[in-house]
From TrEMBL:
PANTHER family: FATTY ACID SYNTHASE (PTHR45527:SF1), NONRIBOSOMAL PEPTIDE SYNTHETASE (PTHR45527). GO terms for biological process: amino acid activation for nonribosomal peptide biosynthetic process; secondary metabolite biosynthetic process. Pfam families: Condensation (PF00668), PP-binding (PF00550). This is Carrier domain-containing protein. InterPro entries: ACP-like_sf, AMP-bd_C_sf, CAT-like_dom_sf, Condensation_dom, PP-bd_ACP. It comes from Adineta steineri. Gene3D superfamilies: 3.30.300.30, ACP-like, Chloramphenicol acetyltransferase-like domain, Nonribosomal peptide synthetase, condensation domain.
């Protein structure tokens, strides 16, 4: 037998010609021989155990062979490992810029860093045949790599879509794809500034602007985004900070842009103001203790007058000073240790990938004493709003038509709500939030599963959520929810401050007979297909299907997966260190009726996952939300409770319909609930019958258990409310007819005695 170089890649290429993409194994392990059982078949149990670490050791390192492969490898290394290198070599860098935790767009945006000076011995080598997802990649990092490709090789999305890079996930495969671009010499048309001060609002601005006015009461703000930092070391100059902020507002015109609805043409218009020239910090406030500080932050978060879009006041800054003694006088020229710096934005002007861009500019401007950053030739957000409306969306229009055709977009999910509200009722934004943290073993199993199956964490989390919703809604198979996308689909948008996030329907038709493996493959393909068309505006989808934003059901349930680094939650001005005030002290706001959000910190020592349910108090009680997340945790444990092993067949074979939401303590209670009947009546379940004198005690029937449990799962028995399983039958005697009450009583007595279920 001759050894075959790159045998795993050769086998992978061969299988792709014979099998659908999702059936091609992501990894291969070489063994000297297959162990056989006594009957001559392969003894699966005797095969070596396969884990993520084993696969990583088995993957042979293949160095880049061509200049193109070397270029691609360098791009991968810069994107995938910049953050890890910064963490390991923080002592080599005096500039410790950090970014703020990401919102809803599934990952952190890390400002590019020059790591060329770092010791090469500590760099990470990436094999040209290693899968992108097996070396720590996720969907957002692949987007960054794709945009680096666009910038480096200058090609349009139409010429080479990002999905092709998802499906062909090695450096060798990426090189083959990019070779076609180089050969065809297809050029990317750059976007340039239009030198305008007035124009149409972007689709994202429209959505936020209208959503705030249509779906929510105006008594409380829903889109105030605050970054709250405590001075941990040193002090800041108020004067230098103010100059730096004015400089940032001058450079990023979206932070001084007003929005006004034009009644003449029913269009939302934006125009740039000169508010930066007179911008100043809000009047200082004082707090005596942490409780007072948290009260101030809570009031600020929901304050509807904090911003005024009509005059371009979409940015806010204030200093909160700690009052140690009643007669303490503060130096108004500095922000000292224990003081709080509050920086606020209206969501219509920023998304949370903006935060790191903002602080990067603020940090460099403050430290360098620069007083003006305005570049008249730089692309502004108002230019983007015009350019995006010139994009040919014919293909995306057709994609979404086919994607949603046949879906009942008005159908409500059968969630266990406590108070019924019409879908077009306005919401208060008040939320009930419950968070859980999975242990390291289950978290590791989840992460290994994603890596071994070439799934992004977002895709695996979404598949888990769909499986949970399928069970929670009593086997609803047509499930449609909202997910968000970063939507920075061009290289020019990577360093631009603004609101780009798109909210889109993710509709799935699940089969109860599918295993969880099959669900993940279906979700993966669905996500890949949507990704290419995520720039298609929600407004267009609603218009195409004659839907109203205030009534469409998929905007009531949302999913997100946030990857955020705890190492990047601090930043530095000269010798001043600031630390974020925990966001847990902020009031919980419900932008959707029901939201599941995963959180993962890839550089955390614990390396664990957590998740939260944020539910509207207009529909859900706190106890209901707590029970729901317990059920979700139990589903999660059923799927990932054992360290994942590719020899494991339970998830491959078992249908998702066999998963259960019944918690172990509830199951124990059900098994302890007897009913009594005459001994000559056969129990439906034939379970655990015990003769007691002339009666039999046995487990309740399946139907009884379902109804009994349903009342306790979906409805709180402690609270007084309308009963849902009372079944009255009301009859009126015809004129001239009579009944004997004595005979009726006797007949009812005989009937109840005859049918034991009526006295059980």
């Amino acid at each position: 037998v001759k050894p075959m170089p790159n045998w795993s890649e050769t086998l992978r290429v061969y299988l792709r010609k014979k099998l659908p993409m999702y059936m091609v194994p992501p990894h291969y392990i070489s063994v000297s021989s297959f162990p056989l059982s006594s009957n001559g078949k392969i003894d699966r149990k005797a095969l070596p155990e396969i884990s993520l670490s084993v696969l990583q050791q088995a993957d042979t390192y293949n160095a880049p062979n061509t200049e193109l492969e070397k270029t691609i490898a360098n791009i991968w290394q810069e994107i995938l490992y910049t953050d890890r290198l910064i963490i390991q070599h923080a002592d080599l860098e005096s500039n410790k810029l950090s970014s703020i935790a990401n919102e809803t767009v599934s990952s952190m945006y890390y400002p590019s860093k020059n790591v060329s000076g770092i010791d090469k011995q500590t760099s990470f080598l990436i094999s040209t045949t290693a899968s992108f997802f097996s070396v720590g990649g996720n969907s957002l990092s692949l987007v960054k790599i794709y945009q680096q490709y666009q910038s480096k090789f200058n090609f349009e999305t139409e010429a080479l879509s990002i999905r092709q890079f998802f499906e062909n996930s090695t450096i060798v495969e990426h090189a083959k794809l990019l070779e076609t671009i180089i050969i065809d010499d297809i050029q990317l048309k750059q976007w340039h500034t239009l030198h305008i001060n007035e124009g149409i609002a972007s689709y994202a601005q429209e959505r936020i602007f209208l959503d705030e006015r249509v779906r929510f009461y105006n008594q409380s703000a829903i889109y105030n985004e605050l970054l709250v930092q405590r001075v941990e070391k040193g002090f800041l100059s108020v004067n230098r900070l103010l100059k730096a902020l004015r400089c940032i507002l001058s450079k990023h015109k979206i932070l001084r842009t007003c929005l006004v609805f034009n009644d003449d043409d029913s269009a939302l218009k934006q125009s740039i103001t000169d508010i930066h020239l007179t911008f100043t910090l809000a009047t200082d406030q004082t707090f005596r203790n942490e409780e007072e500080l948290h009260d101030i932050i809570r009031q600020m978060t929901v304050n509807p007058t904090l911003f005024d879009l009509s005059i371009g006041r979409v940015f806010y800054c204030q200093i909160l000073r700690q009052q140690v003694t009643p007669d303490e006088n503060h130096d108004k020229e500095i922000i000292k240790n224990s003081d709080i710096l509050v920086i606020g934005f209206h969501h219509v002007a920023i998304d949370h990938l903006t935060f790191s861009i903002f602080f990067s500019d603020l940090w460099s401007t403050y430290n360098s004493h620069v007083t003006w950053l305005d570049d008249e030739e730089s692309l502004q957000y108002i230019d983007y709003a015009v350019h995006e409306r010139l994009i040919d969306m014919t293909m995306s229009h057709e994609f979404w038509r086919l994607q949603l055709e046949g879906c009942n977009l008005k159908r409500q999910l059968l969630l266990p709500i406590d108070q019924h509200c019409l879908s077009n009722d306005q919401r208060s934004g008040s939320a009930s939030m419950v968070e859980i943290t999975f242990d390291r073993r289950i978290s590791s199993s989840f992460l290994n599963y994603a890596s071994l199956h070439h799934l992004t964490l977002f895709q695996l989390g979404l598949a888990t959520f769909y499986t949970f919703l399928f069970k929670l809604t009593y086997s609803q198979t047509d499930l449609c929810i909202s997910c968000v996308n970063a939507n920075r689909y061009r290289p020019e948008l990577q360093t631009m401050i603004g609101m780009f996030v798109s909210t889109l329907p993710y509709c799935m038709q699940l089969d109860p007979c599918w295993s969880f493996h099959e669900v993940t493959k279906y979700v993966r393909e669905k996500c890949f297909s949507i990704f290419e068309h995520s720039h298609y505006p929600l407004q267009h989808i609603l218009r195409d299907f004659h839907l109203n934003q205030s009534t469409v059901s998929f905007l009531q349930t949302a999913f997100d997966f946030m990857t955020e680094s705890s190492v990047s939650d601090r930043f530095t001005f000269d010798d001043v260190s600031l630390q974020p005030v925990s966001s847990k002290e902020f009031p919980d706001l419900a932008k959707f009726d029901f939201t599941l959000t995963f959180f993962y910190d890839p550089v955390s020592v614990d390396n664990v996952l957590s998740c939260s349910f944020i539910c509207s108090r207009d529909l859900f009680e706190d106890t209901t939300v707590t029970i729901m997340i317990q059920r979700f945790q139990y589903i999660f444990e059923q799927l990932f409770s054992t360290s994942f092993n590719v020899n494991e067949t339970a998830l491959v074979v078992s249908p998702i319909a066999k998963l259960t939401l019944i918690l172990p303590d509830e199951m124990n209670e059900i098994q302890r609930v007897p009913f009594y009947r005459q001994s000559n009546v056969t129990n439906e379940g034939e379970l655990n019958s015990i003769l007691i004198s002339s009666f039999v005690t046995a487990l309740a029937s399946f139907a009884q258990a379902r109804i009994w449990l349903d009342e306790r799962i979906r409805f709180d028995p402690v609270k007084s409310q309308i009963a849902i399983y009372n079944m009255p039958f009301v009859y009126r005697l015809q004129s001239g007819h009579t009944l004997s009450i004595k005979q009726l009583h006797q007949a009812l007595h005989l009937t109840v005695n005859k049918h034991p279920s009526l006295h059980t």
